[in-house]
Amino acid sequence: MKAFARNLMLGMLGAGLAAGPALAADPPLSPFMVAISVADLQKETDWYVKMLGAKVVKDADFGGAGTHFRWLMIGTQRLELVYSPTAKDSNPARPKPPGHAGLHGFTHVTLATPDIAATKAALVAKGATLALDVTDVTPLGVRVLYLADPEGNAIEIGQQVGS
Amino acid sequence: MRGRARIALLGLSLVAASACAADAPSLNHFLVGISVKDLKAETDWYVDKLGFKLTKEMSVANGRVIFRWLTQGNERIELVYSATAADTAPVRAKPLGHVALHGLAHVALETTDLEATKKALIAKGVALAVDVTEVKDLGIKAIYITDPEGNAVEIIQRVSG
User: Fold this and answer.
1) Cβ-Cβ contacts under 8 Å, A39 against chain B
2) Is B144 helix (H, G, I), strand (E, B) or coil?
């Protein structure tokens, strides 16, 4: 009985070891950025800088056909604004939040704040319009508000209030 | 008179500065949302291929809208299922053509070893939409994959800066 238990344990250990190298070849992934295809690079940049305190950290032309990448940092969030001269709007356009999930695909970027009331006051003082006022989402443990950038992309700001 | 005006102005700007500092808490990364057609197929892909774990779920309107949080390290993805959601027209193209439609285009994750990540993904049956490509001006090399509904996921490794 003891030997059986030991063999079982060794067997499990062996399986664990076999799984080990496969997992080791699979490095952990961490957040890097979210990309937004924009129609007006300057206007979009200005909005993120003014409203959300973004800083422009990199600019790069790509491919020689007028495509341009611009990286913005908002705290730990990196945003890549991509300007492509041939890019088009979806028709219909993505609805404004909270209806923005009405079209499939990437819908919103959410930023964390430690104090949503203070964030809201600061945004309103800067002339931002809330697409959705402060709303408790109790099952997810967050209190959120929504903004739309000048091209209608949904930015959610959330404060964690539960577990 | 002139001195007093200057002091008053100075006072005003100090008030404005401190109000700014107190009123604008720092913002940081939290999550990225994706509206999906097939919640199960999408969940399975992020779990099986990228190692995400299902951490939270919320159903509203009798299951006509479901939110699901998937986490992997510090990354959080919110899958949103809405029974009435439609496809964009045209449908967003695969990378690198995915930026040809305005709006949120892709999410990028960082690895410390792009070759190892690529190998692990291929071993799991994931096809690369774009093979390893270096973007010198941005100091990265990257691959692109797409989830079952065509949403672009970029995986990058920093090569400088």
Assistant:
1) 102
2) strand
